[in-house]
Amino acid sequence: MEFRELLKGTSFMMVTRFAQFSAGMVTTKISALLLGTTGIGIINQLTFLTQKMSQFTTLSMVEAVVKQIAENKYEKDVKEIISSAFKSYIILVSSFSLISITFLSIFSSDLTIHVFGEKEFISYFFIAIFTFPFLIITSIPFAILKGFRDIKLISRIRITIVFTNLVIAVPLIYFYKLDGAVAYIPISYIVDLILHLFIANKLYFNKLGINLNSIFKASFRTDFVKELFYFSGFGIIVGTYAIFSEFICRSIVVSQLGIDKLGLYAPIIMWGSMITGFLLPALSTYLYPRFCELKNNAQITGLLNDALRLGTLVIIPLLFIGIPYKEFIISIFYTKEFVLAAKFLPYHFLGLLFYVWWYGFTQAMTPTGRIKQHGFFQILYFSLDMLVTYYFVTNFGLYGWMLKHIISPFVFFWIYIVYANIKMEYRITRENIILMLFTLVSSVILIMLMNISFENFEINTLLGPLLLICSYFVLKKEEQLFIKKKLSVKKIKTK
């Protein structure tokens, strides 16, 4: 259908995420050396807290604003429409923000114990409360960029943010250790806000004549408010439950195993984010507004198949190289203290494969009017997360935390694909089945052959790269030609 357009759009964001990942490697290595597993665990929890709280406060309403912009961006009265959309959004989100901050402040002591394991970290909890309003405000300029599908510009902004934050992070962590790492989190979000606001104001708000005055003078459109409440209803129920679920899961790990074990598992999460962080935001930035524009099930099916194929192609290198070289990869970017986590990596990556497949289907639900069904499935997903974590962490330690990242994506990939088949007339293509089976079977073989060696030579260190080369032969002819063309261009440039 539109695979090339999808590839082009997401490639900009993946370049950005690669820059973020590379910069993150620098700060991660410094943090691992200076902070240890406990310090990494604290930073991991603090980042989780700020992001989840901001997601809850916006209550999915920002997606409604993106939808309103995407559907009306070519209308003659676009200024009035966008101003009205932002007016409704600002009023509602401000109200929810006040409620959230009040609630968090009142129960700060109890929540600090659940998040960090010790009441002595309450100052970090208040830093999180201070931080997440900046994330919420950033959603306003980001919404207009995403609504206009200006992916290339979003990519450039984020690359600038990455390197600006890197310059700030390194000295803070090096000289001030944990306090510097904690201070860096709100500072990074402030930098994010300033750059997004500056670019959006220069290229869109000024061009369209949108400012604070036009927003607050805009009409209070009931249809927009109704849609925002519709999305916020989804956000209140699902968002609250998602945060509750993650709090419960993490508090189980902290109470049963200690916050240092979350820190120990951090390399696995970080390497998983090499895909979830690269690919999924890129897919979301392209897919969500695009699904809003599609008119029939045939178009939806085509885009779903393209997303499924792209996700599989991108994750193949991570699987076929990451599984055989797991200890080596972790030791480079962390310290020897973290290499103990390498045994979890292959299975976690297998869960990521299903997570990427599942994610594409989730992006089609809300834009096509299936927000209630998506919300119901999400609640079941988070419930399964809690059940898996409670049972397996209690009985099998950190393996239970690993299984939480495997079982839910596996189960709900099948639930979503069956639902799409019934309600969207979705049909997976033969080419996708072949590629997905090759990826899955190859990954399972690599896992089965772990630690099998011949004269001190591990078979997987050769088999992984060999399977990566073989993946070329399960591509479509046009995809093979695309790769050949790219390689030939690089050869010409090097001569």
Helices and strands in order:
Layout: H1 3-58, H2 61-72, H3 78-106, H4 108-116, H5 122-147, H6 151-208, H7 212-217, H8 222-257, H9 259-276, H10 279-293, H11 297-322, H12 326-333, H13 345-365, H14 371-396, H15 398-423, H16 430-448, E1 453-454, E2 457-458, H17 460-470, H18 477-494
Antiparallel strand pairs: 1-2
Helix pairs in contact: 1-5, 1-6, 1-8, 1-9, 1-10, 2-3, 2-5, 2-8, 2-10, 3-5, 4-5, 5-6, 8-9, 8-14, 9-13, 10-11, 10-13, 11-13, 11-16, 11-17, 13-15, 13-16, 14-15
Description:
By secondary structure, the protein is mostly helical. The chain has one domain (3-494). Helices cover 85% and strands 1% of the residues. The chain is built from 18 helices and two strands. It has helices at 3-58, 61-72, 78-106, 108-116, 122-147, 151-208, 212-217, 222-257, 259-276, 279-293, 297-322, 326-333, 345-365, 371-396, 398-423, 430-448, 460-470, 477-494; strands at 453-454, 457-458. The chain has a two-stranded antiparallel sheet. Helix 1 (3-58) packs across helix 8 (222-257) and helix 14 (371-396) runs antiparallel to helix 15 (398-423). The chain is globular and about 75 Å long. Pfam families: Polysacc_synt (PF01943). It is a multi-pass membrane protein. The chain crosses the membrane at residues 20-43, 89-109, 121-145, 157-176, 182-204, 224-244, 264-287, 307-325, 345-362, 374-393, 399-422, 434-453, 459-475. Its main location: membrane.
